[in-house]
């Protein structure tokens, strides 16, 4: 393949622009905000499940407390009725009086036990309420952080997209200076060799594979015409000669 030395030089300019575009695309794909957003999104799902579980537990405790308080009230009411009967003097039998007194004492112990149960449930309910409150606060903070991260991500993407657009425009201008056949070869090699299709020969070394050329290859390059399109024997990329090639 033949191409004017100036066209081959423009190929290096094109390669630099393409490498810039590749770096911009990589940067856009790997912005740190993306990983943090993914983490927070997963955390939000976890928190939502934890909040539902904590709220369910709190609801169960509220019902349990209500039931225990009702039990206390029932025992208290029964004890009050028995006490009134005892105080009224209507019960005169010694046996009935003893039985009524024993029942009042039993109800007192039962009421005391139930009140302890209510207190224990209230403590558990208070802990459950704190847990729900803390989880909701954490979820609120995460939501705020997620909003801020999304805004920052959008801003970073906008900057990258703007730079990509300017670089892409410059690339189009440079590409018009490269012959179609040379451009097609360059594009093909770029796809094969990690985005680098052309490299400078600098002081006897290919800047694509960073290997020094042997004497035979260097002599072949020295003997080639200026418009010959050369390839590195090691990496097969297009090799562009400059004043600093060491020839």
Automatic annotation (TrEMBL):
Residues 205-239 form the C4-type zinc ribbon domain. It comes from the Bacteria. Pfam families: CT398_CC, Zn_ribbon_9. This is Uncharacterized protein. The keyword Coiled coil applies. It comes from Actinomadura harenae. InterPro entries: CT398_CC_hairpin, Oxidative_Scav/Glycosyltrans, Zf-RING_7. Keywords: Coiled coil. PANTHER family: PHOSPHOLIPASE C-BETA-2-RELATED (PTHR39082), SCAVENGER RECEPTOR CLASS A MEMBER 3 (PTHR39082:SF1). Residues 37-138 form a coiled coil. Residues 14-193 form the CT398-like coiled coil hairpin domain.
